[in-house]
Write a structure and sequence with these properties.
The chain is an alpha/beta fold. The chain is built from 14 helices and 9 strands. Strands 1, 2, 3, 4, 5, 6, 7, 8 and 9 form a 9-stranded mixed beta sheet that branches. α1 links the parallel β1 and β2.
């Protein structure tokens, strides 16, 4: 079993850390939120007082941080991960950030002779808790093979997307699709309601038809149709509107950087921005149906 340093114990990071402990790995954990560290310690981890302390003796370092600026600070700071890590460490950043930052940190790690992967995840809090995440991994093949057993303890799919930064590219493309799909599913069910078509009938029909997609079948924004959907629990997240908006903005920035046309992605970003700005940041992203089509009078 590996000695792992884990930095970032948020809504996703803490259950991921717990699953590593369940798999028998030794974990030293750090987060600015001391209550999150205490929860990890309760699950069997050792506490660290700083990121360098968490990673100093680790064979593998896992980070799960909010934004690219946090990743740069944690990895590239004077007392950061790159400065503290041992020479044979494998660095795995599971944050969802911009491709440019990911590749810059990869390059800095390589400059110190350190192996690194970007490995953002899909599956939300439920997937993190159930160890059913999908890992989209960018970096060298040898590093990927080394990380595979550890990542498999937290997910059911670990996929090599290619060289450095390609894990982030896969994640933002996937989540742009997800945001677009959820808007379209919400529109379809709202239109069906106005036309007098029952939601359960539409759900049954589309399940076996060409409009079928995960956003409807597994995460329908209409309650009572998909068992695991946030719509069944008053849109408690899952995956917040704020996080979806963040990822859609990352996709738009990436598209602008390479001159790609993503009109539906841009429209989805605008819609989620409107919804978030109305005070809905903490609701599950599927709650966008509340804005798209309030119930007919």
């Amino acid at each position: 079993m590996a000695a792992i340093g884990f930095v970032g114990l948020g809504n996703m990071g803490l259950p991921m850390a717990r699953n590593l402990l369940k798999a028998g790995h030794r974990l030293t954990a750090f987060d600015l939120d001391r209550s999150a560290v205490a929860a990890a310690v309760e699950a069997g981890a050792e506490a660290a007082d700083s990121a360098p302390e968490a990673v100093g003796g680790a064979e593998i370092v896992l980070t799960r941080l909010p934004e690219g600026r946090h990743v740069r600070a944690v990895y590239l700071g004077e007392d950061g991960v790159l400065a503290a890590a041992r020479a044979d460490v494998l660095l795995v950043d599971c944050s969802t950030i911009d491709v440019e930052t990911s590749r810059a940190v990869h390059a800095a790690a390589a400059g110190r002779g350190l192996a690194m992967l970007d490995a953002p995840v899909s599956g939300g809090v439920h997937g993190a808790e159930a160890a059913t995440l999908t890992f989209m991994v960018g970096g060298e093949a040898a590093a990927f093979e080394r990380a595979h057993p550890v990542l498999s303890a937290m997910g059911r799919a670990v996929i090599h997307a290619g060289p450095a930064g390609n894990g982030q590219a896969a994640k933002i493309c996937n989540n742009m699709l997800l945001g677009i799909h959820m808007v379209s599913v919400a529109e379809a069910f709202c239109l069906a309601e106005r036309l007098g078509l029952a939601a359960d009938r539409l759900f049954e029909i589309v399940q076996g038809s060409s409009g079928q997609c995960w956003s409807m079948t597994s995460y329908c924004p209409v309650p009572g149709l998909a068992p695991a959907a946030a719509s069944n629990r008053d849109f408690r997240p899952g995956f917040t509107t704020a996080m979806m908006l963040k990822d859609l903005k990352l996709a738009q920035a990436a598209a602008a950087g390479v001159g790609a046309s993503t009109p539906l992605g841009a429209e989805a970003a605008q819609l989620f921005n409107l919804f978030a700005s109305a005070g809905n940041e903490a609701l599950d992203f599927s709650a966008i149906i509340k804005m798209i089509g309030p119930k007919a009078p």
